[in-house]
Write the structure tokens for this entry.
Amino acid sequence: MSQPVFRFAPSPNGPLHLGHAYSALLNHDLARQVGGRFLLRIEDIDRERCRPRFERAILDDLEWLGLEWEEPVRRQSGHLDDYREALDRLVEAELVYPAFLSRGDVRAVIAEEEARGADWPRDPDGAPLYPTIERELPEDERRARIEAGAPFAWRLDIDAAMERVSGKLDWQEQGSGPQGETGLISADPRVWGDFIVARKDVPTSYQLSVVVDDAIQDVTHVVRGRDLFHATSGQRLLQELLGLSPPVYLHHDLILGEDGRKLSKSRGDTGLEALRTAGLTPNDIRRMVGL
Ligand code: GLU
């Protein structure tokens, strides 16, 4: 059997907090326990929110925690061609379509439907599903809009995509989901509707790049927070459509703040750097997250 491969994949859009420390340490420890490899991947496709200074701070924090990872570190922004190639395959397979609606347009479509009394469906994160009205846009209309410079994303036609799935779409869960789901989990990608495969500003999305990278990097174990449990359904579908073999997944507990809420980078919750400056040691951090 090939060597197990684990990865910690932070987005450099803020400082690391205790929840990230837990995830990174858990990946690292599990890799060590089974004689596996530990990779660090920087998920920096969001040019508006990612900053080099956050990436430097992440590397400093992880080093301070005592983690060792393989070099070179994969930075998603340096591999856009890999994602573009995967996207092209989905375009050729006619599984994605150009999506031009702005946020305001989406809100208007939903408001109109809801005014008629229909409850608009929401995804597991609570966001309204994208309207499917552009699936059937005539080809010449699409071309005209693109030639006129209209910004567009690529979205998966979830109905077309599900039709391509032969057999069961599931994954091996070694941790647990929000309702305690564990073992063999049946993926349910429809909960995400026509989800985004490439954003308006880059030829990829979180879902596409994570799937492409996990495959390119031979990742065998995806260990991450339970907040991404449902995202796995979309990832399993993309793996199936692109012919990529799935890793096993372990979704772990989230470290909550004192108020019981999920820690958040944007609120600057319990930043590792602050804890370090306050004199805590890496062992204190391990104890705080229960490792
Ligand atoms: N980059 C994602 C995050 O920081 C994690 C991706 C993953 O582990 O699949 O939330």
